[in-house]
Automatic annotation (TrEMBL):
Organism: Jeotgalicoccus meleagridis
GO BP: any one term: pyridoxine biosynthetic process
Source species taxonomy: Bacteria, Bacillati, Bacillota, Bacilli, Bacillales
A molecular function GO annotation: FMN binding
Protein name: Pyridoxine/pyridoxamine 5'-phosphate oxidase
Protein keywords: Flavoprotein, FMN, Oxidoreductase
UniProt key word Flavoprotein: yes
């Protein structure tokens, strides 16, 4: 079989999917918590493995899988070795994007925000390898988050949270 036949025959979005949660929350971190609990209950594989995108000095974008190690009411914590490309990239440009795809549920979460390397992480230190190793810890503080749900009958629904003057607003797209 030729490669393009193989690509064409690869199954996508097989379902069955949960219904889109019509509730909107005060902020996307609360919404994330609910979806994360659902992901655990639905036995999503590796729900903490996420794609983190950055941007370098030559304006070339980059991305890689990282693990979300913890969260609090303002953001998500990730960590990395210090001598790495992403550390230079984030030093150059704090804006990052995170993409999460939970295929078992047909769900995607897209996060845009700032990677803060100076944020306090004492309250989540027990969940970080940085407790025992000299790692770079970033707190990703979101400013825009989109929740995407594929529908069983085809198509999708999206709910977008945006931050306006420190207040979260949301809209169905
Ligand atoms: C499932 C998975 C989880 C990973 N988790 C991390 C992580 O939490 N932190 C990290 O720095 N790299 C992690 N990596 C490795 C990165 O994807 C990447 O290869 C490495 O960090 C170098 O990236 P950079 O050159 O862009 O800095 C993970 C890779 C995979 C496949």
């Amino acid at each position: 079989m030729n490669i393009n036949d193989m690509i064409q025959e690869s199954k996508i979005m097989t379902g069955p999917f949960p219904d889109f949660d019509k509730r909107s929350y005060e902020n996307p971190l609360l919404h994330f918590k609910e979806w994360f609990k659902d992901a655990i209950n639905s036995e999503v594989k590796e729900p903490t493995s996420v794609v983190v995108s950055t941007y370098d000095k030559e304006r070339i974008t980059d991305s890689r899988v990282m693990i979300i190690k913890a969260m609090d009411d303002q953001g998500f914590f990730i960590e990395t070795n210090k001598e790495q490309a992403k550390v230079d990239q984030i030093a150059y440009n704090q804006h990052v994007a995170i993409n999460i795809y939970w295929r078992e549920q047909g769900r995607q979460i897209r996060i845009q925000g700032i990677a803060d390397s100076t944020a306090n992480f004492d309250h989540v230190e027990d969940y970080l390898d940085a407790k025992t190793r000299d790692l770079m810890v970033y707190k990703i503080i979101p400013s825009r988050v989109e929740f995407y749900q594929a529908k069983n009958q085809g198509g999708y629904e999206r709910l977008l949270y945006t931050l306006n003057e420190d207040k979260w607003q949301n809209t169905h797209l």
